[in-house]
Amino acid sequence: NRGYAGCDWPILRRSPAMIRYFCCRLTPSGIGDQLSQLNRLHDLGRRLGLEYLYRDFPRNRWSPDFDAADFLGLGLGEQRVEDHPDHALVSVDGAAALRALQEGRPLESLLPGRAPPRAIMELVHSSTMYSLGAPVQLQYPINLREKLLQRHGAQILQRGPKDRLSVCVHVRQGDCTWVRRGDRYVFLGMRKITSDPQDVDLRRAPHAE
Questions:
Q1: Cα 193 to chain center, whole Å?
Q2: Which of 41, 80, 99, 201 is deepest in the core (most CB within 10 A)?
Q3: 18-71 pLDDT tens trace
């Protein structure tokens, strides 16, 4: 089970009386970041030996009227949180769960002292997970290609080479690019302005005049 910080971590096995399911709580960030959060938490929950339950995304901050999860078909073929109305949610910080996995601590160490008898572990994404290096390589990634095919069928396949997806990539100006305004360089998405031509973000990012 290689993948976290380049090391081998055991899957934390659960007993029959313990929590069986997990779901993911994402932040209302951009679509790409939400997918990254989902993959990290999904991988983490599976490594904890739990079964995944889908829940709707919070609308992303940049395109709140676009339902990215529906477009990508992320809920297709998945059990959902609402399928288990007799289960209570128990929130667990994703970074804390990652540390338990890395240290080989039992799954019980993540739960409150008096957990409900039927519960779903809600793994909560936090920025600390990035600094912990999770994950370097996903063991249980979400199969986006399969989801897209289920959602849109043959219309997303190219007419030429078979079994290849047609992908459209849109880079929003000012998000991961910079825009020049006089003697200043403005990164809108990063909320950053610099006048230093040697700025690290300026040197590594494409630009739009």
A1: 28
A2: 41
A3: 689 999 999 888 788 888 889 989 999 999 999 999 999 888 777 778 888 998
Buried b or exposed e, range 183-206, using 16+ CB within 10 angstroms: eebebeeeeeebeeeeeeebeebe
The confidence score (pLDDT) of residue 7 equals: 44
**Which among 47, 44, 53, 43 is positioned nearest to 22, based on CA atoms?**
53
Residue 24's beta-bridge partner residues?
Answer: 123
Each residue of 171-188: pLDDT tens digit?
554 455 667 778 877 765
Each residue of 4-21: pLDDT tens digit?
444 444 555 444 446 899
* Widest Cα–Cα separation across the chain: 65
Residues 6+ apart with CB under 8 A from 84: 21, 53, 118, 120
Strand pairing partners for 157? 165
In 3D space, the residue among 88, 1, 79, 15 whose CA is nearest the CA of residue 46 turns out to be 1
Structure tokens at 130: 């990035």
Quick one: residue 12, left, alpha or beta (phi over 0 = left, psi -120 to 50 = alpha)? beta
Residue written as tokens 């031509």? 197
Cβ neighbours of residue 56 closer than 8 Å, sequence gap 6 or more: 69, 75
Cα separation, 58 vs 69, whole angstroms: 9
